[in-house]
Amino acid sequence: MTSIFEKNGGTYRNENGILIPNLKAPETTKEIGKYGNLHKKFIKQNYRAFYSTLLIKGTLFDYLEKVDLKAKNELNRLIKDMAVRQGITEELKAKDQIAWVGAMNNIRHSAEALYCKG
Known about the structure:
The chain is mainly alpha-helical. The protein is built from six helices and two strands.
């Protein structure tokens, strides 16, 4: 009797009388950013079945790429909103670049702390 796995080209290996499917995750050249990697670590530790399913289906890196892009967009939106609320403008950038860079760095760090915490 042939399994569905074998009919679709899958093979098994015998380990101590137990047939184990020969599974290999698809190789990818995609680079996942900071937030995609953080999410990967989170789902791998907390949602193992979901992580394994994505890995076996070959959709893990596409999923992580979307998560990373969404996180970056949200973070950029949050940074812009915080800069507006704190009165950090292009005028300040033109007048005093050092003060503008310092203020924007503080906002970025605060936004990352808020985003990653929430």
